[in-house]
Amino acid sequence: MLEAFEAFVGVNFWTMIFAWCNLLILYLFLRKLLFNPVKNMIDSRQKEIDDMYTEAEKSREDAAVMKADYEEKMNRANEESEEILKKAVRRAQLREEEILHDANDKAARVMKRAEEQVELEKKRAINEVKNEVSDMAIDIASAVIERDVSRKEHEALIDEFIRTMGDS
Amino acid sequence: MDISVNGPKIYFEIPIFGGIRITQTTVSLFAVTVLLMIAGYCLTRNLKKRPGRMQVILEKLITMLYNLVEDTMGKHNLVFAPYIGTLFLSSIMGTLIGMTQIFRSTTADLSVTLAWAIVTSVMVWYHNIKNFGVKTWLKGFTEPIVVMTPMNIVSEIAQPISMAFRHFGNVAGGSVLTSLIYGALAALTSFLFSWLPEAVAALFPPIFQIGIPAFLSIYFDLFSGFVQALVFSLLTMVYVGSACPPPAEKPKKEKSK
After folding, report:
1. What is the ipTM of this complex?
2. In terms of pTM, does the model score above 0.90?
3. Of B8, B66, B83, the CB nearest to A5
4. In what order do the strands lie in the sheet with B9-14?
5. Is the Cβ of B119 closer than 8 Å to some Cβ of chain A?
6. Are B53 and A47 in contact (CB under 8 A)?
7. Between chains, do B29 and A18 touch, taking CB under 8 Å as contact?
8. Distance separating alpha carbons of residues B94 and B29, to the nearest angstrom
């Protein structure tokens, strides 16, 4: 069989048609199976990564806000507790003073009452002694003068005597 | 030693529509399509959020493509990225498939590069008319002065032709040069052993053909193939991109290239 060749520099319309067909088929096929799926994959991955970064950034900001919040709360709590402590100490001091004061008062009162009682006892004792002495005086006097001294008649006299004797 | 520079071989002819010639190029075109389809299918069979090694490379390449399209055409033109990617892959695979020696490079056939260049031009015209209106587009030919109109029309027609020939010429020229050098190396071998009796010299293989053409192949097939695919895609991006300005600038008239 004789080998036949196309012209080296020539255009065959049917070859062009074949070229177009192949280009079209290849274009449709590769677009559907190669370019679009891979591009979509790249884009979706990119989007996922972007989302992740956004999310992480957001969480970080949230955490920072929370941290600030907590710190503020903590500070406030510290201040509050200090204040409470201070108040308690002050109140305790006040209470201490009060108690001391009360105790002093009470002691003073007790002391006073005791003194008063002592005084009263003393007076009563003195009165008793006075009565005894007056009785004794009357007895002695009646014995001395050998007659009955009328208590009624001489009471004033005796009292006068006792008073001069030792009222002091 | 005879070196023949031929176009693609014609395998057979389907006797309809005035004869559809099935050539090496046709076969290569389908081979490239099938190969790329299989590759595309296998690479994207199980895409995962947490990519494996292959997926990372694939994603890197696709990201590079989208970045290139975005840089050249703008963010609003990212829809063109799959087409640019297909064009680039078709071009570079079409060139590289020639290295198998089973298939002929598709891009070494002017029909193919011209077909692609015409697609680019049609896209440019379509988007120009769509974005600026027929009137503005036609008026663009008379700028800067009316006398320039024939020149503008010629440049409009020359654009796909120059694109097609640039790509075709680089690949076809590379293959011609490679076959010439093959011939030269064979000649050099036979010259080296010419002092021997003819029967003995014929026993030696063309030893210079081993290894040396590989370096040429690195330039003509790999480097040139890559550069031409890139240039073709870049030109397409630039031309189509200028026909699709950013949405805000749409009302403004832009000189069509």
Report:
1. 0.82
2. no
3. B8
4. A4-5, B9-14, B20-23
5. yes
6. no
7. yes
8. 7
